[in-house]
Design a protein that fits this description.
The chain is an all-beta fold and 116 residues long. Helices cover 0% and strands 45% of the residues. It is built from no helices and ten strands.
Amino acid sequence: MKVYKVKVNGKVYEVELESVTESAAKISAPNPETSKVQNTTVTNGEGSPLNAPMAGTILDVKVKVGDTIKEGDVVCILEAMKLENEVVAQTSGVVKSIAVAKGDSVSNGQLLVVIG
């Protein structure tokens, strides 16, 4: 054990640290073949896809198929790391299809809505 003095916001604290041995850890990158994002393309060629900006859980879908929306309108609420994020439309148009529902888990880049 080693004892250190640490000053935080003007107060001095004594901290005891125990040394530990280092171990050789093996770090591997994910295989790009197995980590492909699903549902990122529009199959019929109509409209522009709105993809998830990050992985998380859909808390609410604010639009319905057929709704007319403007650029900047909130399309859905995505919870990521305990924060609620508003996913907004990148283009104006009519909602052609919705690929997610309330409570769905989505990955980064997954298709949420098609706007035509």
